[in-house]
């Protein structure tokens, strides 16, 4: 097994290689405006570090969000392209699950990433491998009662200490955690979901109301 994992659902552009036992190379950079520019060089960097070629990859793992439309689709389209070119399966993993796995907490906790517009993408977890709720988006004040008293990880939690007073790192997801979680689930015979994006909001760019289409006669 050689899994290539990547995620662009948060401001972090992160890539890793996992051989089924351990992460053998990884890299990441936080830049919310350069996902498309940074992702492929990051893939090349981890392959070079591992001394491997792209055609050695046997599967691709990609974070499916939730996340902003533009950033999220960069990783998903890249993963799909690699899968088609190499003829290997592409596995989707919830980005929040990757953060939860990296947090490595035993008791109940919350993962929250920055959804902008003064909102967070969030979910509750029983432990680092077990999600209790579907990913959702909401204002911190509106979900305060649901997360009260729980430890929290992620950039969204760190941004709103009034709602998440027990927030701590990791701040962003790492492809290393995504890859390790995917490898663990695959080894256990768990079927991972198809790489379909978790869009919890409509994209910012929309066709204006009363838009008139002008066609030549």
From TrEMBL:
Signal peptide: none annotated. InterPro entries: ATPase_NBD, Gcp-like_dom, T6A_TsaB. Pfam families: TsaD (PF00814). SUPFAM superfamilies: Actin-like ATPase domain. GO terms for biological process: tRNA threonylcarbamoyladenosine modification. Residues 32-156 form the Gcp-like domain. It comes from the Bacteria. GO terms for cellular component: cytosol. NCBIfam families: T6A_YeaZ (TIGR03725). This is tRNA (Adenosine(37)-N6)-threonylcarbamoyltransferase complex dimerization subunit type 1 TsaB. It comes from Streptomyces griseoviridis.
């Amino acid at each position: 097994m050689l899994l290539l994992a990547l995620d662009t659902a948060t401001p972090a552009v992160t890539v890793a290689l996992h051989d089924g036992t351990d992460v053998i190379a990884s890299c990441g950079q936080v830049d919310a405006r350069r996902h498309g520019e940074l992702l492929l060089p990051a893939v090349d960097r981890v392959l070079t570090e591992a001394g491997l070629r792209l055609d050695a990859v046997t599967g691709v793992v990609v974070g499916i969000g939730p996340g902003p439309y533009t950033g999220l689709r960069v990783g998903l389209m890249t993963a799909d392209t690699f899968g088609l070119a190499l003829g290997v399966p592409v596995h989707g993993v919830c980005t929040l699950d990757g953060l939860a796995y990296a947090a490595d907490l035993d008791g109940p906790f919350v993962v929250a990433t920055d959804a902008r517009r003064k909102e967070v993408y969030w979910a509750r977890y029983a432990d680092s491998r077990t999600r209790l709720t579907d990913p959702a988006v909401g204002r911190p004040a509106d979900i305060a009662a649901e997360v009260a008293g729980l430890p929290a990880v992620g950039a969204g939690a760190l941004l709103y200490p009034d709602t998440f007073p027990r927030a701590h790192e990791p701040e962003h997801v790492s492809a290393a955690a995504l890859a390790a979680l995917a490898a663990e689930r695959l080894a256990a015979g768990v079927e991972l979901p198809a790489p379909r994006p978790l869009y919890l909001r409509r994209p910012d760019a929309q066709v204006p109301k009363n838009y008139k289409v002008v066609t030549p006669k």
